[in-house]
Amino acid sequence: MEKKADRIHPDEWLKDIPLPTENPAFKSEELISCAKCTRMNPPTRLKCLYCGAELEFSAEQSSFIKLNLRKLDVWEKGFNLIYKAETLKLDESKLAEIAKLLKIEADKMQKMLGEDSSLPLIRTETEREAAVMQQQLKKFGIETIILSDEMLAAENLLKRLRGIEFWDDKIIFVLFNTDEIVEISNDDLILVVSGAIFERRVEATEQRAKKDENKLLQVDETMSDEFLIDVYNRQNTVGYRIYAKGFDFSSLEADKGLTAADNLRKLVKKLREVAPNAKFVDDYLHLRESLGTVWEVEHKTDSQGIKRGGVGSFNLTNVTVANNTLQFTKYSRLRRHIL
After folding, report:
1. Can you list the pairs that 171-179 forms with residues at least 24 positions away whose Cβ atoms lie under 8 Å?
2. Is residue 169 a contact partner of residue 189, using CB atoms and an 8 Å limit?
3. Which residue of 186, 196, 198, 232 has the smallest Cβ count within 10 Å?
4. Of 233, 235, 240, which is closest to residue 180 (Cα–Cα)?
5. How does pLDDT run across 157-195, given as a tens digit for each residue?
6. 0.85 exceeded by the pTM?
7. In sequence order, what DSSP letters do the residues of 73-130 get, joined into one string?
């Protein structure tokens, strides 16, 4: 079969193709040998390309690795890379690189790095991934620590307090719904974290007809908030929690106010007076948005079941609840771990 002349290109067209100025291949000294199968791997992988074994690499080689990170669900266990708040001067190009590396919008990244507080920058599935990201961020002068979800133990609830008694040189914690008390010295109180729990509840009822013509009948939305205080003593990393509801503020004596929120503020003031060397943290409300970039607010949707509506139709009600208890607990425990 003859080739058509118009389909035959002279060699001149090759001159317009730009030639590469760099060798895309890795140098031999950059390759990583697998300890299991001894084959050489590019320094962009965590596991061997051939046998799947984990590769051992140097800190320098970790800068080549390209992590394929997936977003973890709230309930999954992971590893948190915590930014140690420092004064950094980053230009826009470096900030853009960091944002791309962490898969965070540049404006959010700038805000997070500008906060005068320790914050999670990313949450990874494995400690090895967190360690690689730690090395890559170090190139930009960003120092981090790794805290696992197991260490934060946000699902391990703080012990709720019913009251606090102040003595000359000691503090007595009275636990909620028990006769148990915990006695500590004033100097043993090391951390007080103030914050609030917010809950948004949406109840939606939908009519489901036989012809698949679903119709939203009603949406009811309610919101609530409750201020609270977490306190930690030197020997305890789990902590104690004070809710305004159900707490006995009689220890404030003449200073006791009319509202629960006011009494919580006065309680914090009293704790400052008796434990001046303790750390007091009250920036959670300011940091909620930045914290939510990595530690999202928990959402749960439950079905209330199907009920018969009109003729030939049924009603289905779903209740969705958004609550930040887990997020606040993680931040509270984070502050305890970095003391």
Report:
1. 171/274, 171/275, 173/231, 173/240, 174/248, 176/246
2. no
3. 196
4. 240
5. 999 999 999 999 999 999 999 889 999 999 999 999 999
6. no
7. PTTS--EEEEE--------HHHHHHHHHHHT--HHHHHHHHHSSS-EEEEEESSHHHH
Residues 6+ apart with CB under 8 A from 27: none
Distance CA 114, CA 87 (A): 8
What is the total residue count of the chain?
A: 339
What b/e string do you get for 301-331 counting C-beta neighbours within 10 Å, with b at 16 or more? eeeeeeeebeeeeebbbeeeebbbbbbbbbb
Residue 22: band (very low, low, confident or very high) from pLDDT cuts 50, 70, 90: very low
CA 253 – CA 202 distance, rounded (Å): 40
Distance separating the N- and C-terminal Cα atoms of the chain: 81
| Ramachandran assignment for 64, one of left (phi > 0), alpha (psi -120 to 50 degrees), beta (any other) | alpha
